[in-house]
Amino acid sequence: MTGTVQVRLRDIAHARSGDKGDTANVGVIALEPRWYPVLARFLTRERVAAHYATTITGGVERFELPNLGALNFLLHGALDGGGTLSLKTDAQGKVFSTSMLRLVLDVPADEAAAAGLPVAR
Amino acid sequence: MSRIVRVGAGQGFWGDWLEAPRRQVEGGPLDYLMLDYLAEVTMSILQKQKLRDPAMGYARDFVGAFESVLPAVAHRGVKVIANAGGVNPMACARAIRAVADRHGVGDKVVIGVVTGDDLLPRLDALVAAGHELRSMDTAAPLATVRERVLSANAYIGSDPIVEALRRGANVVITGRSTDTALTMAPLRHEFGWAATDHDRLAAGIIAGHIIECGAQCSGGNCLWDWRDIPALGDVGFPIVEGHADGTFVVTKHPGTGGRVTRQTVTEQLVYEMGDPHAYITPDVVADFTSIRLEDLGGDRVRVHGITGRPATDKLKVSIAYSAGYKAVGTLVYSWPDALEKAEAADRVLRERLDRLGLRFDTILTEYVGASATHGDLSAIKAQPWVAELPEVQLRVGVRSGDKATVERFTREIAPLVLTGPPSVTGFAGGRPKVEEIVAYWPALVDKTVVQPEVTLA
User: Fold this and answer.
1) pLDDT of residue B1
2) Chain B: nearest CA to A30, how far in angstroms?
3) A51 with B373: Cβ contact below 8 A
4) The CATH number of domain B320-441 is 3.30.70
5) Which of A108, B102, B123, B254 has its CA 20 to 30 A from that of B245?
6) How far apart are CA B115 and CA A8, in angstroms?
7) Residue A40 sits at the chain B interface (C-beta within 8 Å)
8) Strand partners, B446
């Protein structure tokens, strides 16, 4: 097989998010442990920064937790000042987890097939 | 088989399920009940209450919670550890003492009170001595907001809680101790872990992190397979079964609802996570990349492999200061073209605010039901059905240092009902409330300047 396929993050991961000041953290967890290497390779800091380009004002940090099959992202400037200052409905970043899961990854077709990933198209 | 010490969570925050503490002590074996009441700005709210009434300033929910578990404490040896003391742990202890006496079991309750975290009375002396208490977010020195500071408390660790237990307390009340120390301290006390036993202390801290948000690790707020998580109406709060070697099992009482699996525990592990290599506490720096999870089935997850390293020489300080005023106004617009109507209303509102010459530090408009939580990522306008949304809530918030400016804003929402776009409802609540903003200023201070004390009351 050649070319790339699109894999929806929501089909291969679950997530939880929280806050620390004006920073939202999003932990992204592979639904199947064998899918973690795909997450680690394709859910890059740059990919996430591009995803949130218009919705956060600061940078993105990324950490790997292979032991938990998870990645942790810190999204700075995500919460309009955060805590009690914030005017946002989601002042504490509780559902940033779900906006992360909107992301769609481009994965080489042969790798997607080898890992048994659910493919959107 | 090695000895097991069971620590159960009974509250994940102030406002959590009132039934949970009693269910934890009645649903099966338990040695310690851990109750976490304090969020970042809770201390400042309590400080305000104490200013109005010197007998207040603690989490009053704890009094009812304690009463609901008193038989287990007095007659079955269950011990209670809570950071309910807020800015007035002694007053909290007096209220708890009164409950025990009223039920005729005063002689069976020994209260250990942990104090020394409150730095407010010493703040100017600390600054004068060269402690700048710079914001960990902005690096600005505290002097820039000093006159607006409402509370200042150091996060203290497990030492004084262990000391209280060693001296025979069966109820330990703290002020601003870390959430995780409430769980780690009883394990450390029971197993005699030394202050240099970094791996085991880190394991206790991670056990605390897993259960500190109550049912959020046992099926509550769990995205994975959420439809099929059983019986959340009867959800069991989490319990840690600790072993002397630092390994532990996360579980819940048999027959309760919810679920404890690798997935529910992992979601909680990543909650509010920063750098996973360095989870910094007053006791130890824990490494989340060392955690090994083993799903044993039957709502049991074994946790092992955890490593830690020595703590830093600093303590985090939670400072709250007054930071102006805010208000949020909402109106609901109905089908058809609900989003378009709400957007038109926002333009009308902003034109009027401009004409009044009102200037805000921030004005933020959200469309609840369309894009409030996901912003541009919802891509709602690209959807062919956007005009068919049944309703959209217009939500406009403003923030300013000037109270009158915010007050004036609150009077511009209702007029939109008869002077703006059509199909509008949802204004039964009256004018929006003006709220004082109590903001959070995290800082670091040298550990040596904070000396926690334990009093048996």
Assistant:
1) 56
2) 10
3) no
4) yes
5) B254
6) 51
7) no
8) B314
Do residue B373 and residue A97 have CB atoms under 8 angstroms apart? no
Enumerate the β-bridge partners of residue B284: B310
Q: How far apart are CA B117 and CA B258, in angstroms?
A: 36
Report d(CA B445, CA B126) in Å as an integer.
Answer: 9
* Residue that has been written with the tokens 């394991």 in this structure: B203
User: Per the CB < 8 Å rule, is B270 touching A16?
Assistant: yes
Nearest to A14 among B267, B293, B442 (CB): B267
Segments in chain A forming alpha helices (H)? 9-12, 36-42, 45-51, 96-100, 109-115
Res. A83 pLDDT band, cuts 50 70 90: confident
Residue type, B432: P
Q: Which pLDDT band holds residue B51 (cuts at 50, 70, 90)?
A: confident
Q: What ranges do the domains of chain B cover?
A: 5-117+155-312, 320-441
d(CA B403, CA B396): 17
Q: What is the largest CA-CA distance in chain B?
A: 76
Question: How far, rounded to the nearest angstrom, does the alpha carbon of residue A99 sit from its chain's CA centroid?
Answer: 8
Residue A28's Cα: distance from chain center in Å? 6
Show the DSSP H helices in B215-320 as ranges. 262-269
* Helix, strand and coil in chain A, % to nearest 5: 30, 30, 40
Instruction: Tell me the DSSP string of B2-70.
Output: ---EEEEEEESSTTS-TTHHHHHHHSS--SEEEE----TTHHHHHHHHHHH-TT--S-THHHHHHHHHH
Contact assignment for A102 to B377 by CB distance below 8 Å:
yes
B325 in reach of chain A (CB within 8 A): no
pLDDT digits (tens, 9 = 90+) for B342-387: 999 999 999 999 999 999 999 999 999 999 999 999 999 999 999 9
